């Protein structure tokens, strides 16, 4: 192609390279057309001719030797404009073979396929098979590799399930030694708090925190991190709730390791008058839920033996068997107004969090009449963690869920929550929670599969006040994308997920944020071989 521009810029001549006698003459008014416009015209013409050249080259490669420039252009652009699909050069027999459903019997009896792409290419070069044989061998290799990958994934999920559901021997050792201390050492069974501090337990001028846990070491980290980072530790009242079996060792730990000047209360569920009298809906629901899950799931062996479900579905079902999802310590938060009838506002903490800042500003947050102050989990830079909506937890294929809720509604997180108990007592939140637990049982656990968050999303629906994400960073227990610097910048970090910081499967770069609140020179810690790594 040759371009000729007259000195006066009144004519632009385009001469095709193959000797066209015709030429295109563009009349240019020197007073109305700028240099830039002329340049853009030339640029467009250049692009158009290059495009035609490329399409012509493609036709030549495809085997079409006789093809003029305009003919190729029409042929190539036409089908695209009309929405038609160009014919593929891949033999149709390959598509037919690949689309045929795999037979399970053939899968088990077929000979060993190549293990790598290099082996497959070598075999194809040696045998020079036709298209059908090529497709059959390729499909066999990919299917076999798929099956091995699936098996390895499921084994990984099973091992993680076992590791996260078991009690490490170090923690079991600590509980036994503390129970022994409680029975033999009077200093390990002190009244908590001391008699002169008992009035603080119902004094709303204090900052009241509630922690429900049967994990002594985890509770000690939450308590230590809370007190050490608080500006006015003498104004802290930490109410620790535990079960009957853990009460004695939990009391022994905080008797032997006081967090003065904070006020620490250790109380077993059996000490609450409300909890020991009459029917407790959440306990009844839990008993039914546990029985239903054992029958419905068939245990981890039955789940892993399933050959048709995807690994992620199997992982979710294994997670549903985790003891924590049927733990009373998880469900008890729905009865906070009854457990603390004299308190107006509390902050509820999970036992897998670490406090890294002063939490007193939480009491200055205006909840605007809402009950639950929580961090939303559908917005944020981390799309893996902060992408949760109602559809992530509830089964919207069930008409009962689809009728009442919006799948795109933003979810929120348990772990660090501000609860306005005054406002809560004006609602029917606890009754709603129990009602939906019953509905899930009646539907064979088809409304949701696991955890206390799904019924919590329902019960607190319309009663949630969104707080700044600084107060609660999530995901440190199920993904390691969070850097140490990012985690250190949060007010509260949450090791939600299987990789708890007290387990061997914890992420090593994040675990120091938790272990820094453990005194590894402590006699009990050393005797149970609890180490930083």
TrEMBL record:
- Pathway it acts in? Glycan metabolism; pectin biosynthesis
Give EC number(s), comma-separated.
2.4.1.-
- A single Gene Ontology CC term: Golgi membrane
Per UniProt, subcellular location reads as: Golgi apparatus membrane
- Alphabetized CDD domains for the sequence: GT8_like_1
One Gene Ontology MF term: polygalacturonate 4-alpha-galacturonosyltransferase activity
Name the Gene3D superfamilies on file: Spore Coat Polysaccharide Biosynthesis Protein SpsA, Chain A
Which GO biological process categories is it annotated with?
Answer: cell wall organization
* Keyword Transferase annotated: yes
Name of a matching Pfam family: Glyco_transf_8
Name the UniProt key words of this record, in alphabetical order. Answer: Cell wall biogenesis/degradation, Glycosyltransferase, Golgi apparatus, Membrane, Transferase, Transmembrane, Transmembrane helix
Regarding the membrane, this protein is recorded as: Single-pass type II membrane protein
Write down the InterPro entries for this protein, in alphabetical order. GAUT, Glyco_trans_8, Nucleotide-diphossugar_trans
Domain of life, per lineage: Eukaryota
Looking at the UniProt entry, the stretches that span the membrane are: 37-58
Which PANTHER family does the annotation name?
GALACTURONOSYLTRANSFERASE 12-RELATED, GALACTURONOSYLTRANSFERASE 4-RELATED
Task: Indicate what this protein is called per its UniProt record.
Answer: Hexosyltransferase
């Amino acid at each position: 192609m040759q371009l000729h521009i007259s000195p006066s810029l009144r004519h632009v001549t385009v001469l095709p390279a193959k000797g066209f006698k015709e030429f295109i003459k563009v009349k240019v008014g020197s007073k109305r057309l700028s240099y830039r416009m002329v340049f853009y015209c030339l640029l467009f013409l250049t692009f158009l001719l290059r495009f035609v050249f490329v399409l012509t080259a493609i036709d030549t490669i495809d085997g079409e030797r006789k093809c003029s420039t305009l003919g190729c252009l029409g042929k190539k652009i036409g089908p695209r404009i009309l929405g038609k699909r160009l014919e593929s050069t891949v033999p149709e027999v390959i598509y037919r073979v690949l689309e045929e459903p795999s037979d399970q019997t053939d899968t088990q009896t077929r000979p060993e396929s190549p293990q790598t792409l290099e082996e497959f290419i070598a075999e194809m070069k040696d045998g020079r098979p036709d298209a059908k044989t090529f497709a059959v061998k390729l499909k066999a290799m990919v299917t076999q590799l798929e099956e091995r990958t699936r098996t390895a994934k499921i084994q990984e999920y099973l091992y993680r399930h076992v590791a996260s559901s078991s009690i490490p021997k170090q923690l079991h050792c600590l509980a036994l030694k503390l129970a022994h201390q409680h029975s033999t050492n009077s200093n390990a069974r002190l009244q908590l708090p001391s008699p002169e501090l008992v009035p603080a337990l119902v004094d709303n001028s204090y900052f009241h925190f509630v922690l429900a846990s049967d994990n002594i070491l985890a509770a000690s980290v939450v308590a230590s991190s809370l007190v050490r980072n608080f500006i006015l530790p003498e104004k802290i009242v930490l109410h620790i709730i535990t079960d009957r079996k853990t009460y004695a060792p939990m009391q022994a730990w905080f008797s032997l390791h006081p967090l003065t000047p904070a006020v620490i209360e250790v109380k077993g569920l059996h000490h609450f008058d409300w909890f020991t009298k009459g029917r407790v809906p959440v306990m009844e629901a839990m008993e039914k839920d546990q029985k239903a899950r054992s029958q419905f799931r068939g245990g981890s062996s039955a789940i892993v033996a399933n050959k048709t479900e995807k690994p992620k579905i199997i992982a979710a079902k294994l997670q549903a068997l985790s003891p924590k999802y049927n733990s009373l310590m998880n469900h008890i938060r729905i009865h906070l107004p009854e457990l603390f009838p004299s308190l107006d506002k509390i902050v509820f903490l999970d036992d897998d969090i670490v406090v890294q800042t002063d939490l007193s500003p939480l009491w200055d947050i205006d909840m605007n009449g809402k009950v639950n102050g929580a961090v939303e989990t559908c917005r944020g830079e981390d799309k893996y963690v902060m992408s949760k909506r109602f559809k992530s937890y509830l089964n919207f294929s069930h008409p009962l869920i689809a009728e009442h809720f919006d799948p795109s509604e933003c979810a929120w997180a348990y772990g660090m929550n501000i609860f306005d108990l005054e406002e809560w007592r004006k609602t029917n939140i606890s009754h709603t929670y129990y009602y939906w637990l019953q509905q899930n049982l009646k539907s064979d656990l088809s409304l949701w599969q696991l955890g206390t968050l799904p019924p919590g999303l329902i019960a607190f629906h319309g009663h949630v006040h969104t707080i700044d994400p600084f107060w609660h960073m999530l995901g440190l227990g199920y993904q390691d994308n969070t850097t140490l610097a990012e985690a250190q910048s949060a007010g509260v970090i949450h090791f939600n997920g299987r990789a708890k910081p007290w387990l061997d499967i914890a992420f090593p770069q994040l675990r120091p944020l938790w272990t820094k609140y453990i005194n590894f020179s402590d006699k009990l810690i050393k005797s149970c071989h609890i180490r930083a790594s």
